[in-house]
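Catalogue entry: protein
Contents: sequence, C-alpha cells
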Amino acid sequence: MMMRSNGSITRFTQAVLLFALTGCATAPAIQNAAPPSNAAPPTASPPDAIAQAPQSVRAVKVLEGLENPWGMAWLPDGAMLITERPGRLRIVRDGRLDPNPIAGVPNVFAQRQGGLMDVSVHPQFAQNQLIYFTFADGTEQANRTRLARARFDGRSLQDVQVIFEVTQPKPDGQHFGSRIAWLPDGTMLVSIGDGGNPPVAIEGELIRQQAQNLQSRLGKIVRLNDDGSIPSDNPFVNGGGDRAIWSYGHRNIQGLAVDPATNRVWATEHGARGGDELNLVQAGENYGWPLVTHSREYSGGEISPDRSRPGLVDPKQVWSTIAPSGLMVYSGDRVPAWQGNLFAGGLVSQDIRRIEVDAAGNVVNEQTIAIGQRVRDVRQSPEGEIYVLTDAPNGQLLRLEPS
C-alpha cells in the first residue's frame, strides 16, 4: 500500500486492508475531555455535525525507521519531506522512505532538545524550489535557533542560506522552539523558545525572563519576509522592541498553525510542570510567560501567583500536562464535521487532541485520539488526510483513518 502521490487517492477500503496487514492497534473510541475552568461556556454543536463525527479513529502505520522525526511538509509532486532531529532531511516518495538522506543540510547542534527541527515549503515552490528549515546551532555553552532556506533540486539542498537567527547565544540544550507557518500575505511566522529552565541564566538572570524582553528574540513569535527581512508593518518596527517580534511572552511553542478559513493563528506551547497552553495569537500581544502561568516549577514551587493579569492574553485552553508538539487546523472534506477543528499532538500524553472552537475562538469541546506513542507532529496532507510523526529512535509515520 502506498501513500497518496501525484493526486492519486487512497480509499478507505484500502486503508482498512493496510491496517490489517501492518497489524497496527486501533485507537479506542475518542473520549471526551472536560474543558478547563477558564474556558468559555460550551455551546452546542450543530446536530448534523454530531451525526457526521466518527466514533473512533485508527492510526495506520505508513512507515517506520525514522530517528526522532520532528517536522514534515509536502512538495507539489506529492513527495513528503521529513526532518530527523540528529540532522538529517529525508524524503518519502510513493509511500517509500528513500534510504539516502538529502545532501546539503548544515551541521546542527543535536544535543538534548536541539537539532534539526521544522521544515516548510515555500507557497510558490513550483516556481522557486525553495524550502525552509529551523535548527539549533552552536555548542553546549553557546547555541541558538536558526532559520535557513535552500533550493531543493530533488536530490540535494543548494544555495543554503541562514536568513534569521536568535542574536543572543545561550547555554544548555533546552527550549529552541520552533515551528514555521505561512500567513496569507506571503510572510512567515517562526516560533522561538525562551531558552530553558532554571538554573539556566543569561545576563545575570533566569533565561526565561527574556520572554518579556522586547530587545530579545527568545520566547517570541517572529514574522519575516520569505528572504528573512523584516516586514515594514510588524508591531515593533517603529521602536520599542526588536523589529522581527510579532508576539511575546511565550515559553516554548512547538505547535503553530494558521486557519485557512479564518486566518487565525493558533499556537500550543509547553508549560513547565503543568500549564501547557493553547493560544489564539495576535500581533503585538503579550501572552504572559513567566509573569502569569498555570505552571509550577519542576521542584514543585510556584513560578507566579498570578494566572491572569490585565493587559496579558489568557490561553484558550490549559492542560495539566500533555507536552504539546505539532498543530494543524483541519480544512479537508473527508470528515466535514472536523472542518475548522484543531488537532494538537501530545508527547507525554501520547495522543492527539481534537479541539472544537466557536466563532469567537473559544474552546467548546475537546476529544482525545489515543496514539500510544509520543506525538511530535501532526499535519494535513494536500489531499486532506491527517499524518502523524512519533518521536522515537525508530519513529513512525502514521495516518489517521476515521471509522
